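Notebook p. 47: complex prediction with tryptophan.
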Amino acid sequence: MTNKDRVLSGIQPTHESFHLGNYLGAVKQWVELQDSHDAFYCVVDLHALTTSPDPAKLRKQTLSSVAQLIALGLDPERCTLFIQSHVPAHNQLAWVMECLTGFGEASRMTQFKDKSAKSGTDRTVVGLFTYPMLMAADILLYQASQVPVGEDQRQHIELTRDLAQRFNATYKETFTIPSGYILKAGAKIYDLQDPTAKMSKSAESPSGIIDLMDAPEVNIKKIKSAVTDTERDVSFDEKKKPGISNLLTIYSALTNKSIKESEADFSGKGYGDFKGAVAEVVVEFFRPIRAKALELLDDPTHLNKILTLGAEKAEEVANKTLKDTYDAMGIIPRA
Ligand code: AMP
Ligand code: TRP
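Predicted complex, structure tokens below:
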């Protein structure tokens, strides 16, 4: 046991590869937090069911996500890394959270509203409606005090706090009230072909997205064809030069240089040279990571060992919280 602050975060296994935005906007911070905090990270496969993935794909994506997280620097010795469905307490506490959440309250969640407005209520699964309560369970089971997530998850964290406070006030002091640890702005990465839109798998074309698991040649080509502007100086100006600024953000984040230092590296140089240098930095950064992820995926026995250990560590904490929760509510334990 440690007395470090606890953090918990989760990522959905919705794709076979993470992209540069997922790394710089989320996973990089997860890696940093594992030393200063008692960190729990899970691949939230149950949440991914709300997108009705193909079973073979879900299997592949889940393992690939775990392998990439380890390759990117999550160390199973320094953090607890596990698959959400391996710890049944997540579903069990989710039901408790559903019984505490108002119907109207859940209806006001913007992510649900946006998604259901797009597809219509008949095509929207109830799992999407109860998604935030499963997420609240993910967090509260571990008594996490901080939850590193992107800005888009702020409302879900607020709901989690409300539910924790409501439970504590109604029954008994049981849950730590978590705060969002909204990941630093500036780490937002834009689409290479449309540098005003966030780099995202839902983009129409994959040509603006840098996937970690893609072959180096593919990524070099994408970076060399990134949209820029008609000027010639490599300088940071998000409004006037979104394409160049995005490439500078990427270069600076991966080399740990400031934007100023990065600009200086290319003073007097043209866009061609600059893009070539960014491509090289990205590809060389991802090369060993991709190799490590592929190596892990090639050795399922080893990967399973890591996941079993992670689930065991997670379960120890989760089951204790679930037991306290049930006790507080008057649910009788099996004799
Ligand atoms: P998603 O798969 O889009 O839900 O994203 C998973 C995580 O990556 C979230 O924590 C996001 O905040 C982060 N993320 C996704 N896209 C980007 C981006 N373009 N720039 C920075 N962070 C991102
Ligand atoms: N909803 C989060 C997302 O889409 C993923 C998630 C599920 C999560 N459970 C969590 C994030 C618990 C933080 C903590 O990004």
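Notes: The chain has a mean pLDDT of 95. The longest strand covers residues 6-11.
Next step: compare against the earlier run before touching the bench.
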